[in-house]
Amino acid sequence: MSAAPAHGRLRSIFAIDDRSLAVFRVLVATLVLADLAIRSFDLDAFYTADAALPAEYVNRLLTGTGRWSLHLLAGSPQAAGVLFLLSGLAAAAMLVGYETRIATAGSWILLTSLQNRSPLLGNDGDDLLRLLLLWGSLLPLGARASMDDADRPSSVPRARGSTVACAAILLQICWMYGFSGIWKLNAEWLSGHALQEFFSASWFAQPSGRALVRFPTLTKSFTFATVAIQLAAPFLLLSPWRTDRTRLVGLGLLVPLHILLDRTLRLGWFSYVCLVALTLFIPTSAWDRLVPARRLSTATEIPPRIGGDDVVERGLLHRAWAIAVGALALFVLVWNLATLPSFGGIARILPSGFWWLGGATALAQKWSMLEHPPRGDLWYVAFGTTQIPSAVDVLTGGIPDPQKPEWPSARLPNQNWRHLFWRLNAEEFKDLRETTASFLCRRWNSSHRTELQLEEVRLISYGDRRNPKDPSDPVSYPYVRWTAGGPCRPRTEIPPF
């Protein structure tokens, strides 16, 4: 096969329809705005000097990793609020397609900063959203259905993206699926019991997931299907053979998978971000049936498929840019391989600068969510004593009750608190237990009258486990995992700016 047909085939495989880019842009910006809205309710909890995650602790976590955060400079609620406002403005500009490339890059910078300020709050969905913004800033997301496109003179053709930039974002999504499947190649998933155990864990399960526990054959099939679809996704989405048809098959498998996972497990943004990412794989043939190109463009305009021999790929400077983007995509592949336990030899020979670069560019990633089901369940009581005197659980506002609630994680305000409280059980984060208890105490006192003020909150983590003397006993027995007391220190007085 000659070089020209081969290159043309690659262009065909990695091309992205600009109608997909328009939908992708709007949905990604919407997710960023929704994420900001949820985080804004916890401005004082996670992004100020009095946060449950103190800035000095986060600085220690980030030291030597290359990761950075502008939000660490914001000690007051007012300063943190300004950064949130800037993030919202950048996302809104991206949503309507105003100075789209700059808005997308700005959203990526500010979201990376926000995530690094409270690194314990995210999961794979947050990582994927950040990476989509990074790779998306290299694409002409404002080429259609945008203010940029509306202001474009009719004599000027729409901006078109390079094949290498299209390939980079599509490969990133495919690697996410492929490596997610590889991480699940362990005893729990290969035995077919993993999702049964997740559905049995109240911390992760939705009511519909709990209902599936009664159907072990169904959950076993669901478990095998999840691994198989994730491993097959890269080949279906980037198949050189009948690309459009195999891509639609891949979408037909992945979309229901994400809907089912979202309705049965508490996964935060993960399924939503994945569904948004998959819009980039909608082929031109499908768009032509749904939204014919002639409805959106005139006869003098370029066809909707982007990628190929355009001006972006010509010239020495642009070739160097394409090589740099390709190098970053290769870097991501090596990074993912190096994080696999079976490829530990790669990790040992990579220089420290490699890991630092991953943090500095925000390309660091690890798709191991749901790798292992939890060993037992957990729940919390935040025990505080008022001056009346009486005891109160500051998480619920009711009487402290050590009995396991039906849905433990649902008692927490949102997904960010769920992620934090799950990680508090890890020994490496035990220093945050007291600061979290102190914050809960301080927040309670700021919203209650004098006789209900607290001096200390004792955070108690409970778990349950089976009878070690009788493994066949179906009853789980509660026990105390750990306790941590946090005094109600006064708020830190910090100038607004």
Structure commentary:
The chain is α+β, with helices and mostly antiparallel strands. The protein contains 21 helices and six strands. A four-stranded antiparallel beta sheet has the order 4-3-5-6. A hairpin with a 4-residue loop joins strand 3 (378-386) and strand 4. Helix 6 runs antiparallel to helix 7, helix 9 (163-183) packs antiparallel against helix 13 (216-237) and helix 13 (216-237) runs antiparallel to helix 14 (243-264). The protein starts with a helix and ends in a 10-residue tail after the last strand. 40% of the residues are buried.
Q: Can you describe this structure in just a few lines?
A:
With 497 residues, the protein is of the alpha+beta class. 53% of the residues lie in helices and 8% in strands.
Sum up the structure in keywords.
497 residues; alpha+beta; four-stranded antiparallel sheet; two-stranded antiparallel ribbon; 6 strands; 8% strand
Shape: globular
Q: Write out the strand line-up for the largest beta sheet, numbering strands in chain order.
A: 4-3-5-6
| End-to-end CA span | 63 Å
The amount of beta strand, in percent, is 5-15%
> Uncertain segments of ≥5 residues (pLDDT<50)?
295-313
Helix content: 40-55%
Main sheet makeup: 4 strands, antiparallel
Order of helices and strands: HEHHHHHHHHHHHHHHHEHHHEEHHEE
Number of extended strands:
6
Oligomer: single chain
Could you say which structural class the secondary elements and strand pairing correspond to? alpha+beta
How large, in whole angstroms, is the Cα Rg?
Answer: 25 Å
Please, what is the average pLDDT? 89
Number of H- or I-type helical stretches: 21
